[in-house]
């Protein structure tokens, strides 16, 4: 027999009356699992043909100068689009792994300060040293977490700060702890986000400016990945922003995961 997921809610009326509400989530859960399996399978199946296409496009590009100009332009466009699809498939696979795999097998002590040093280098390379990135980190603060997942979450936030702010912008990264837990804060002084978009930013494929987002090469899955990584670590993502003033994305991790090392 199939096990069912039920939720009971009892409401009291006056002295003696009770209302019992029973909700059956079994069907919803089954559909959700089917959705997750479908996305995981499709992403997996797309991977191999995409690798073959990208490989050949790369080879053709090595000999592009022998082609007529019109074809060269076509080849460049095909390469850009296949790279975009590869990123999309990778992000979809990452999300479906986050939704289905067991976190505890991946937990280890993570030195976030070193992780942030390395992400900062990658971010500066992405920006072509056009942004200023300052780091203010507690080097004694460590965390029990998945190194791979936190790297993916924190890089998404820091790379977004590069992608959505003009050259010359300043990005401030802070890693600190207080009584509530550990916090990774990424603040930029870029164009900011209209407040009406904030509640929907972590939805899959939600973008503020569809046209611009395509040119930045994003997949629309970055913040959904950050949110899932936080949920898996019993943490959360908070976002504040004001148009024209910049944005601030903060990952909060629970106090139970942190420990301190001597300097
Ligand atoms: P994408 O792959 O499009 O970057 P994300 O989920 O990472 O997707 O981000 C969703 C949207 O949030 C982006 O398309 C962008 O409009 C907005 N956004 C994210 N970070 C910033 C930022 N630092 N400043 C302004 N807008 C941002």
Automatic annotation (TrEMBL):
The enzyme's E.C. designation? 2.7.13.3
Q: Which UniProt keywords apply?
A: ATP-binding, Cell membrane, Kinase, Membrane, Nucleotide-binding, Phosphate transport, Phosphoprotein, Transferase, Transmembrane, Transmembrane helix, Transport, Two-component regulatory system
Q: Where can this protein be found? A: Cell membrane
Reaction(s) catalysed by this chain, per the record, are: ATP + protein L-histidine = ADP + protein N-phospho-L-histidine
Query: Is Iron a UniProt keyword of this protein?
Result: no
Q: What is its main location?
A: membrane
Q: Name one GO cellular component term.
A: plasma membrane
GO aspect biological process, one term: cellular response to phosphate starvation
Class of this enzyme? transferase
The molecule here is called Phosphate regulon sensor protein PhoR
What organism is listed for this UniProt entry?
Marinospirillum celere
Entire protein: which part is shown? 169 to 431 of 431
């Amino acid at each position: 027999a199939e096990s069912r997921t039920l939720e009971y809610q009892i409401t009291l009326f006056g002295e003696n009356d009770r209302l019992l509400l029973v909700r059956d989530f079994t069907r919803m859960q089954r559909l959700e699992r089917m959705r997750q399996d479908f996305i995981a399978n499709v992403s997996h199946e797309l991977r191999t043909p995409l690798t073959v296409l990208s490989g050949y496009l790369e080879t053709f590009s090595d000999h592009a100068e022998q082609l007529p100009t019109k074809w060269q332009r076509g080849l460049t466009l095909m390469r850009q689009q296949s790279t975009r699809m590869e990123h999309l498939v990778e992000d979809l696979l990452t999300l479906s792994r986050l939704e289905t795999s067991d976190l505890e097998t991946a937990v280890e002590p993570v030195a976030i300060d070193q992780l942030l040093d390395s992400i900062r280098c990658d971010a500066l390379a992405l920006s072509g040293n056009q942004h200023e990135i300052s780091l203010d980190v507690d080097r004694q603060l460590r965390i029990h977490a998945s190194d791979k997942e936190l790297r993916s979450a924190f890089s998404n936030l820091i790379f977004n700060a590069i992608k959505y702010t003009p050259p010359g912008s300043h990005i401030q990264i802070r890693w600190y702890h207080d009584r509530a837990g550990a916090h990774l804060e990424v603040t930029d002084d870029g164009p900011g986000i209209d407040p009406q978009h904030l509640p929907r930013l972590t939805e899959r494929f939600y973008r503020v400016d569809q046209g611009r987002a395509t040119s930045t090469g994003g997949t629309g899955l970055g913040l959904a990945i950050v949110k899932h990584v936080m949920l898996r670590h019993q943490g959360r993502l908070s976002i504040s922003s004001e148009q024209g003033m910049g944005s601030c994305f903060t990952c909060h991790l629970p106090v139970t995961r942190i420990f301190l090392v001597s300097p």
